[in-house]
Specification:
The chain contains eleven helices and no strands. It is an all-alpha fold.
Amino acid sequence: MIDALPIMVSVFPFGLVYGVLAVKSGLTAVEALLSSIIVLAGASQFISLPLFAAGVSPWVIIGTVFIVNIRHFIMGAALSGRIKEPEVFPRLIASYFLVDETFALTSAVWDTDRTTSARDYLIGCGIVGGTSWIVSTMMGAVFGNLLGDPSRLGLDFAVAAAFIGLLIPQVKGRPEIVVMLWTALFSVFFYLFIPGNWYILLGSILGAITGAMVTHDTD
């Protein structure tokens, strides 16, 4: 769990921002809290806020969130072979805590130490990061009026900074650089030319295909 402390620190201001914006978008503090507990997926929660504010159909919100979170299928498939324990219930708990940050950290640890239980490590990271996200959401929803504009304090950049910190240690040579650059190019291309949030899924899929072509995964 100590390894997950950077996630806790970076997620906390992000959760504060979400709590503030959720209330400004018309959600109550309790609804904002339940969103972070039940959904536990920051990007899709943020994307849902303008939809809530606009009063669109719940099915539109559900569909949008589903599209944004399709990448979790890819992350789950990538980790499934690394989770050796067969018990179903602990696997369900691990899947609940599977988010971008815990996936990146668990994958990095597995690549360097394969005696570590990927399932237990993922759950440990998820408890730390998830608790930070949920607590900070509640604080932002309740005390957000004291913060004012979150971007004025630079809080909106916290998660981007965390992802950069998680990404850099994974770049060990030319293959990783190639995959990173092509994935970025794919994502930007789809973002510019395809409406909606499909750039997340399509960029991830093509990035994974590129990775399979230029690297040799021995899992």
